[in-house]
Structure formats: structure tokens, C-alpha cells
Amino acid sequence: MNDPIGPPEPAGRTVIVTGASSGIGAAAARRLASLGATVLPVGRSPRRTAEVAAEIGAEPYVADFADLAQVRRLADTLLERCPRIDVLANNAGGLFAPRQETVDGHELTFQVNHLAPFLLTMLLTPRLREGARERGPVRVITTSSLGNRFGRLRLDDLEWRRRRYGGGWIAYSTTKLMNILFTRELARRTRGTGLEAYCFHPTSEPGRRRRTPGAHRTRFASASRPMRLLPGPVLDRIALTAEDGAEPLVRLAGARAVPAESGTYFHGLRPGGRINRQADSAELARRLWEVSAEFVRSDLPPA
Predict the structure, then answer these.
(1) How far is the C-alpha of 302 from the C-alpha of 55, rounded, in Å?
(2) Mean pLDDT of 271-293
(3) Least confidently predicted of 75-79, 138-142, 237-241
């Protein structure tokens, strides 16, 4: 079965969108709000997050995922203000060069793209599962990438201290592979609870990419050297618009039913996108989960 995700009907749903201060996250927040969802935009930039929140009539939530203490405070605030959560969209992320470490001592790409959303999901999961019991399926959606195919996950070197960092691209691709492994393991651990987990590569249907005057090119990797070297006209032809990239997120958040089992990776609107061979390892997914949980153990509530 390779049916595309159906049209979004998110009216009445409460949707948390991280990375909502610009790009795909901002476009998704605007679209979901226009369709009747209650959207909680989360971003790193106070100014840009406030601007998006003002556009959609929402309250801004600010957190820098390079600081796990801020992730914990964000979760506390969301739990205090959201008696129900229908969708958590883990969209925040980035590509960083050169290699940097966070205040928590982790490599920046690993923490922002995997460890912080892992922690946020763990902290919000009890509320999500409660909602699933009371009202039916809820969803955790994670923005991955076709770049996952070029990742190389080594559990003995998650911090990129023993191998070439590759200007950030190899580390980034590896975190996109982690996003798929995380989604599959979350699906396994929550099977039968009503919590559904999906991840996707952000693109629209082939041949339908928009170049309308209102479309915004994403800021992704704009500071990386390869992207800086591309001429403007070339970049305009290959760059993804935020609106195109947001479409799978909007549909996964708003569709009445998703045409694939929990744990599926979508390429755009269709399930079954091409993945790294490591993504098929259930054992690797389990071990990554356990290692990640150990990293954030002090930030998790008592069992």
C-alpha cells in the first residue's frame, strides 16, 4: 500500500510544533491554524517565534534545544497549559559547522536534532497517552530527511569525537537516521496505546513544488559552505519552499487516518521512502533509545 496521506482536517486538535520560528515549522503552524487547529508554536528565537504566534493568534513558547534545562522547562509549561495534546511535531533541528558542544557537553547536532526532541517526547508522552485513552489516536511526528541514507550511526561515538565531522553534513545525516530509528522504537513501545509515531522527508508531491510570490525559501543550512557557494539562481531552482516542505507535516497532523502503520517513514506524502540499511535494525533502535534515555535520565521524572 503506497497511498498518499489524505487531506488535513485538524480542526479541534491541539498541535505543538517545534522549530516554528521560521521555515517549515512556521509554514506548518500557519497552515494548521488556518484549518482550525489550536497551534502552540515553539522556537529558539524570541522575536521570530513571537511574530509567528501573533500571526496565528497564539502564545509563543521559546526554548533553545542546545540547553536541555530549557527543554525541561518547556515541557513543564506545556503540561501546565495544555490539558490535551493531540499532536507533537518534533520539527526543530539544524546543520551546524564546525563541530560544537552544548552546555550539556553533547555535540550540538546530536543534541538539537535527536536528544532534545527525545527528551521532550518522553516528558509529554504521559499526557499524549492519556489523550489517546480518552479521545482516540494521538500522534508524534518527526521531521527526518532523505539525508538519512548517508548517515552512519556508531553508538560508541555519538558525540563525533573519534571520526571526521564532515563539515556537519555527515553528523546531520546521522541524526536524520536517528529520527527514523526513534520513530520506529517509539511505535514499538507504544503499540496498542493509541499513540501513533511517524516521520517524513519534507517535500511535496513530485511536480507540484510551488514558486508562488508568497512562498518562502527555507533557512536550512544557509550558513554551510556548500550552500553559500551556490549562485543565487541555482539555489532558487533547487531550494525547497517552506510551504512545500511543511505539507507532509500538515497532513500527518491533520489527516483523519494515516495510510500506513505507526513507525512509518514517509517521503513527502507517500509511505515507504528509501532509508539507510541501519534503519531496519530493531536492535539498533532499541539500543539507541536506551543510550538516549541514559543521557537524559536526570531530566526525566521518576518512574
Answers:
(1) 38
(2) 97
(3) 237-241
Could you list the residue range(s) of the whole structural domain that residue 91 is in? 14-211+243-295
Report yes or no on 233 lying in a domain. no
Of the candidates 222, 86, 243, 110, the residue with the CA atom closest to the CA atom of residue 165: 110
Closest to 22 measured CA to CA, from 87, 75, 92: 92
67 within domain boundaries = yes
Tell whether 4 is covered by a domain.
Answer: no
Whether the link from the prior residue into 259 is cis, omega within 30° of 0, is: no
The one catalytic residue in 61, 172, 198, 265 is: 172
Q: What one-character DSSP code corresponds to residue 83?
A: S
Give the total number of structural domains in the chain. Answer: 1
| Overall pTM > 0.85 | yes
Q: What is the DSSP string of 196-208?
A: EEEEEE---STT-
Q: What is the DSSP string of 96-157?
A: -SS--B-TTSSBHHHIIIIIHHHHHHHHHHHHHHHHHHHHS-EEEEEE--GGGGG----TT-
Q: 205 in a domain, yes or no?
A: yes
Q: Which H/E stretch holds residue 90?
A: strand 87-90
Cβ pair 269, 251 in contact under 8 A = yes
Confidence at residue 218, expressed as pLDDT on a 0 to 100 scale: 52
Per the prediction, the chain carries an average pLDDT of: 90
Q: Measure the CA angle with vertex 90, ends 20 and 137; round to 5°.
A: 115
Walk across the sheet containing 61-62 and list its strands: 61-62, 38-43, 14-18, 87-90, 138-143, 195-201, 265-267, 270-271
For the question of residue 172 being annotated catalytic, the response is yes
Angle value at C-alpha 260, between 258 and 262, nearest 5 degrees: 90
Which H or E run contains 62?
strand 61-62
Cβ-contact 58, 79 below 8 angstroms: no
CATH of residue 134: 3.40.50.720
Hey, CA dihedral for 210, 211, 212, 213, is it positive or negative? positive
Residue 287 is placed in which grid cell?
539500543
